[in-house]
Design brief:
The protein is of the alpha+beta class. The chain has one domain (2-194): Protein Transport Mog1p, Chain A, CATH 3.40.1000. It has helices spanning 2-15, 86-100, 177-182, and strands spanning 28-29, 35-43, 46-56, 72-78, 115-124, 127-138, 144-157, 162-170, 187-188.
Length: 195
């Protein structure tokens, strides 16, 4: 638990500007044992306005041999009034992980610089689904570049004229049990567009 708390502290310092008035935000419907952190946009290198929620499994996030190593989820509720594209998601993921690792976006020759590839897999009414892969620098455990797979849901809230994004991450391949059991259960709250 101390390790997860340390991660939250580092995450706060490295990437986000926090506001105490967001502590009651609940974007993700998930077991209460999962660690939670709330942040607000604009965040470093991103101009969106809104809030985000990061959730970590109760065990194993920073243990390389554990099934939950680097397995986590976050959601953004942002002022995006247009359909998000594959390219925009790729850029946002690179910005997110570079900022997490205090790597400047101009430092493209830095061997810790993140990369992302995202493709849209389907569209259902106001929800678009994406699948992708990343290479990021793991400054918390291995101090090396690691692969991460990601599933993304983009929900457009017409009444609010906002977009809610749900990201699920793991270095495990998509057929692995961490995807078919743990991550499959993670959802946004059903009334997410009514917040």
């Amino acid at each position: 638990m101390k390790k997860i708390s340390l991660f939250f502290t580092l995450l706060c310092c490295a990437f986000f500007s926090f506001g105490q008035n967001y502590k009651d935000i609940h974007l993700i419907d998930i077991d209460s044992l999962w660690g939670k952190e709330i942040f607000r946009f604009p965040a470093r290198n991103m101009d969106y306005k809104g809030v985000g929620e990061v959730r970590f499994p109760p065990k194993g996030w920073r243990t390389q041999e554990h099934i939950n190593f680097w397995t986590y989820t976050f959601a953004w509720d942002i002022n995006l009034n247009t359909k998000i594209t594959e390219k925009e998601l790729e850029i946002n993921l690179v910005k997110y992980f570079n900022s997490l690792n205090t790597i400047e976006m101009k430092a493209t020759t830095d061997n810790r610089f993140s990369s992302a590839k995202v493709i849209q897999t389907k569209q259902e009414k106001v929800t678009a689904f994406f699948k992708g892969s990343l290479r990021i620098f793991d400054r918390f455990t291995t101090k090396k570049m690691i692969p991460l797979n990601v599933l993304i849901e983009s929900h457009y809230c017409k009444k609010k004229k906002r977009t809610i994004l749900l990201f699920k991450f793991s270095p495990k391949e998509f057929g692995h049990e961490v995807w078919t059991t743990t991550l499959k259960k993670i959802k946004l709250h059903t009334l997410i567009c009514d917040y």
